[in-house]
Amino acid sequence: MTAYLVKRLIAGLATLVAASIVVFGVLEVVPGDPARLMLGMNASAETVQVLRDQMGLDQPLAVRYLDWASGMLALDFGKSYTYSVPVLELVSERLVVSLPLALIALALSTLIAIPVGIFSAARRGQTADTISMGAAQIGVAVPNFWFALLLIYVFAVWLRLVPAGGFPGWESGFWPALKSLLLPAIALALPQAAILARVTRSAMLDVMSEDYIRTARAKGMPRRHVLWRHALRNAMIPVVTIMGLQFTFLLAGTIIIENVFYLPGLGRLIFQAITQRDLIVVESVVMLLVAAVVLVNFLVDLSYAAIDPRLRARQ
Length: 315
Description:
By secondary structure, the protein is mainly α. It has helices at 2-29, 34-39, 45-55, 61-73, 87-122, 127-141, 144-158, 174-208, 211-218, 223-234, 236-252, 255-260, 266-275, 279-307, 309-314. The chain starts with a helix and ends with a helix.
């Protein structure tokens, strides 16, 4: 088990190094002078040169990469030239919105998808299976921003149960802040629940064809116990894998939803930084998201051994 953990840690570190080189290189080859774009086309050459010096754009490419990478290791992400505040402070302010939003969306997605997947697998080929998987197919096909607009119209405009957008802050109270995240979390969760339900159904069908499931049924074990105690646990590895991928997607891929609901989260921060060519913010936030992906994948790998004891024996 220790050797397995060391291998996964080395692979994660290698991924971070490779991702940092790619992120830095891609942003460097994007056309246009960041200093000129930030100051405007009417800015004088002297003013542009001063900003280039402040941003370190006059340094060689390798030196700039090493300075940036070493700063990341020391948790010094630099200073945003658009907001004139440290990037870490910006990320901390936005993460208190994006992280709860992603966690709520993942929880809703899981609570919806796993029971639907099990229900559909237990009724394979029946009308209930066709209806549930048809609904899941619609959920996969329809974009989440359409769900968002529909939810705003029904629950915010028509019923007036929750706000249509904005975030009051957690300091205004837990319930007002949670209410502002409910609609975007549902809009994010529904398409993800559709994907997870289909994966759960497929994994359950694969497991239910195994000999030990037929043996449990032959011994007279209730069908519910067979499904929830035996089949589900052995079908969880692909389900947990998709859940890990979905969490990283929900954390990083909320740009559209956060703009629809006008939420001050990481997705909106990345969008604003890209449009303003605030390179240090884009580079730092993207690398933090890459680190989150690597960490979640590492935790998913660890969960495999907890789910299936046979994997622990192999490692």
